[in-house]
Amino acid sequence: MSARHTHEWVLPAELETELPRFMALSRILVDRDELEDWIGQAYLFTLVRGSADREGKARPAYSIADILITLETSAEILDRNPPDPTAAIKEQMLEPGGQVAVVTRSIATLWYCAALLDLTSPQGFITVTAPKQTYPTALVWQAFGGNPMGIPGPYYGNWSYPGTVPIRPIATEPNKVASKEEA
Amino acid sequence: MSAPQYDVVIAGAGVSGAILANKLGQAGFRVLILDAGEEALFDPATGADQRQSLLDRYFEADARVPNSPYRNLPWAPMPFVTSLSAYYYGPQYQTQPPLPPPAEPEDPGHGSYTPFKSTYTRIVGGTTYHWLGTMLRYVPSTFRERTTYGRAVDWPITYDVLEPWYLAAEHEIGVSGDGSLDLGGAPRHGKPYPMPQILPSYTDRVMKDRLDGLEFDGMPVLVQSTPQGRNSIPFQGRPPCAGSTNCVPICPIQAKYDATVHLKRALNPSLDPKNRPGSRPVQHQWKAVVTKVDVGGDGRISGLRWKDGENGREYTVTAHAYVLAMHAIETPKVLLWSGSDQNGLADGVANRSGMVGRHLMDHHVKISYGRADVPLYPFRGPLSTSGIESLRDGQFRRNRAAFRVEIEAIGTNWALNTPFGEVASALMRNEIGASLRRDVAWNVSTGVQLDALFEPDPNPNSRVTIARDDQGNVVTDAFGVPRPRLDFVLDDYTLAGAKAFEELSDAIITRMSGGKQTKADLVDGFFGAGHVMGTLRMGDSPSQSVTNDFGRSWDHPNLWLTGSGLFPTVGSANPTLTIVAVTLRQAEALRDELRQRVGGGSV
């Protein structure tokens, strides 16, 4: 594990040994083998930390019990379903709903967006931002070949040509929502 | 009476204040510039930029809105789009107890009250830190709307008068553009831009192809390169755009112009490539919240009062001339707050016309969106590189608002919170693993978003006043300075323009989707464009306007107002190029006036 920054992200005692199980579940959720532990620690830290907004109102966080049961459930599914437990995770952790589904989706949002999102609205506004060191690592940019907004881009003019990440058609309905305005 | 401390004092270190300070310092005058902001984020000795703290704040922000990189100062609070009511005051902002709206607009069919949604930044360098960078000229008829279309008012100057200043502004800021394009009818007479155009986004290229031959309302629908205040080649010691995809709220490499370019030159004239012998460094005072101007018995401004943001002490500074360059909300607020029964100006300073604070304007923004049938590879360059400018002028302006269309190179970011919205949406459908990645990639890459900016109808009932509660007591911020009350009318003229935009959107989305989607999706309501304009109208007559065509107060000859507050009408184009053109013209007039008055200036 990279030593950088991890001293800032102290986990509660109950979760100190949970990083391996967190990483194992994460690898399935985002379909990547090479995730870095220091980022995982930042995300596990974010999952329990919560935060306060500008008015001091508490932001969502998850209870240690919910996180533990999610990781335990996932570890059992991973054991029982080699080599690819993706379908089983979906069927047994997401489709039944409840807190396990909520925590599982939130782990995926952390890896994809370096933030927790409001998953009650399709716009997915950010509710809690992970430590800033993780910002450029958010996988969503890699998924479609975009530049993480605000990280200096690669070179002049690259935007004028097709990207290098292959983009293939899927069969889903377009995302549609109402206004996000707030007075 | 003792001699004034300075030749000119400038309140506000945004784009207008910084340019004026630079030009007057170069002319050898003793200049003081004040700003409420905390510090200048550059090294004045070398000009080295120091914006990392802004980026760090942005990366940590939960709400990534235009003001998120900037510290909300305890002594100079600013509005945030996510919490407008924390600063703006009035019936549209959940004021407690609720306030009644003002009398309805005289013509009840004219529009209805709505929240003013645009914001600005109280930082040294001003809102140019988070402007998009669009550098369009207004079309000539925008200066003659009363004469040409029988509505609104004429400016006291024409396009022809401003044209050389437009050209000068393009060189001051550094604009990349294609000088051969006719962008809706603003003639350039063959004059090139200082830099080649910014390469169009891949989205633009597909759209240009798909819209070939499309007409709307008898006008061609042309996808054209937007002139932009961002570098396509090295310029002013700043690098070309690298595709950081973050013009708003902050360019990480300063490829996009911001007012610190001129501020550095003002504070250290040797950094100015046109530095002249006899130039003087401009003095500065940061953390200075300007509260009032004082008026002497002769009707001239006799002092400018400011409070120190750290200790709250009030000071007065004196000068031969005073410039208020604090934007179209803070400036009228100070003028209105400066009036009193004691100085015989109960309605406010510079307000004999009653026009201070009136005609507050923004470009209402309507967003439409849809899905292309091919990937557009967004989020890899400037937020927008092309627009549709060919619909900005015509006889239709008698009846409905003109609009320009900004073509987004960041997919449906405003409409759907792309790309995060796609992640949320896919997870809610229980997508994980490889299918999550494919789903997000396709949905993000095929999003098309069009933003239309509408020309507003200037309305005297859209106005800035001093905030007062239901008992009539002044409502102040935590620093004891009045908050602005904003009343703002969404006019029927804009709504009629929006209807036309909806029809155009259907035609564009039909072509972009290959016929799979024939109705564009629309985001409800309107957004603000971040263009705070009007409230200090310039004109030909002291009874109908606040200043003359140079921004000089009719009532107080040594008081100069500046920025987009001066604009009588605003067309549909983003205002910054016109702000700079008007400011450069004003700088020359102010320089000539100061030479006459103080004989000063060594150049």
Number of domains of chain A: 1
What is the radius of gyration of chain A?
Answer: 18 Å
Total strands of chain A: 2
Which percent range describes the beta-strand content of chain B?
Answer: 5-15%
CATH superfamily of chain B: FAD/NAD(P)-binding domain
Biggest β-sheet of chain B: count, sense, barrel? 6 strands, antiparallel
Give the overall form of chain B. Answer: globular
Give the helix level of chain A as a range of percent.
25-40%
- Please give the CATH class of chain B: Alpha Beta
Mean residue pLDDT of chain B: 96
User: What's the rounded overall pLDDT mean of chain A?
Assistant: 88
Q: Evaluate the radius of gyration of chain B.
A: 24 Å
Q: What is the chains' assembly state?
A: heterodimer
SS summary, helix count of chain A: 6
Low-confidence stretches of chain B: none
Which percent band covers the strand fraction of chain A? under 5%
Please give a structural write-up.
The complex is a heterodimer of chains A (183) and B (603). Chain A has 183 residues and is mainly α. Chain A has one domain. Chain A contains six helices and two strands. Chain A has a two-stranded antiparallel ribbon with strand order 1-2. By secondary structure, chain B is of the alpha+beta class. In chain B, a hairpin with a 2-residue loop joins strand 4 and strand 5 (219-220). In chain B, helix 1 packs parallel to helix 6 (260-267) and helix 1 runs parallel beside helix 12 (576-598). The model of chain B has no long low-confidence stretch (mean pLDDT 96).
